[in-house]
Amino acid sequence: PPSLILLDVMMPKMNGYEVCRRLKQDERTREIPVVFVSASEDIEDRVKGFEVGGADFVSTPIQEAEVLARVKTHLELRNTQLHLEGLVAERTAELEKLLREQSERLNFAEEQIRTLFESSTLGVAVTTYEGQWLTVNRALVNMLRTTEAELLQRRVNDVYVDPKQREVLLAELRRSGNVRDFNLHVLRDDGSTFFARLNSVRLVLEGSEVIMAMIDDVTEQMLAEQQAAILQERERLARELHDAVTQTLFSASLLADTAPRVWEKDRTIAKQNLSQLGRLLRGALAEMRTLLFELRPDAMKGQTLGQLLDPLAESARARTRAMIHLTVEDDRLLPKNATTALVR
Hints:
Shape: rod-shaped
Number of strands: 8
Number of helices: 10
Mean pLDDT: 84
C-alpha cells in the first residue's frame, strides 16, 4: 500500500471527501495519511476534510516546497507511528509469551498442589473463621468417616468433642497467624472419636481471610505413649514400694522379732524399740496409702489438700526420721483435673 495519498477534492462521480471516507472504512487503507489538495479556502471545506479522516490540506495552485515539506512531515509521522506500532506489537508478543509461560507454570503448580492435596495422608481442609468448610481432601473425609458432600453441609464445630478447643485455636491464630502441633479430640460422623494433631495457618483467599488446617490422626501414637507412661509409672511405683515400704517393714520386722529378748534384758530399750516400731508401721501405712492413691486416682476424690498431703508428710517422717510438721491454712478441695498431678 502507498505510504501517503495526495487526494483531490473536486472529482467526477465521487468527490475526495467520499473517497477518503471509504479509505478510512477499509482496514487495509485506514492508517494511510491522506492530504487533500483543493483550491477552496473555505474553512468549512477544510473542517469537513478533517472530519472524514484527512491529515492535512494543500491549497492550489501548489507550491512545490510547501507540498514536499508537508509530505515529508506526514511520512515521518507515519514512519514513527509504524515504528511505535512495531515496538508495541513486539512488546505485546513478548508479554503474551511471558503470560502464557506463567500461566503454564501456574497450571502446573496448581496440578501439583491438587495432586498433593488429594494424595496426602494428612487430612487437609480450608475453612472460614465462621466455621464453614470450603474444601477438604479425601484423607480428612476418610478420617471423619463421612462423605465430602455431607461434611461440607456441616459446621467445623461439629467435629470438635470440646468446642472450647476451637476458641483456643482461633485466638492463637489471630495472635500469631499459625498454630503448630495443636492436640485435638475429634468427633467422627458415626459417633466415635480419635485424637489428632493439627497444624494450621491463616491465609488470604480472594480478599477474605481463611484457615488452612492439616490434621494427623495420632490416636495409635498417643495410645503407645500412654502404654509406655503406664509401664514407666508401674516401674516407679515398684521401686518406691521396694525402696520405702519394703525396707520400712523389714526394719519393723527386726524390731518385732527382737522385742521379746530385749524386753527380758532391758525394758527401757524395749520400750524405745516398741515406740520406734510404731513409727515405722505408721510410716509404712502412710507410704502404702500414698501408693494406693497413685494406683487408684478415684480415691483422691473428695479429699482436701491437707488430707492429701498428710500421708506424704507421715511417710517422709518415717523414712527420714526428721521433725516434719504439716500446716495447711484455709484447707480446701482441689480442682479434679489438678488433684492427681499435684499429688504425684
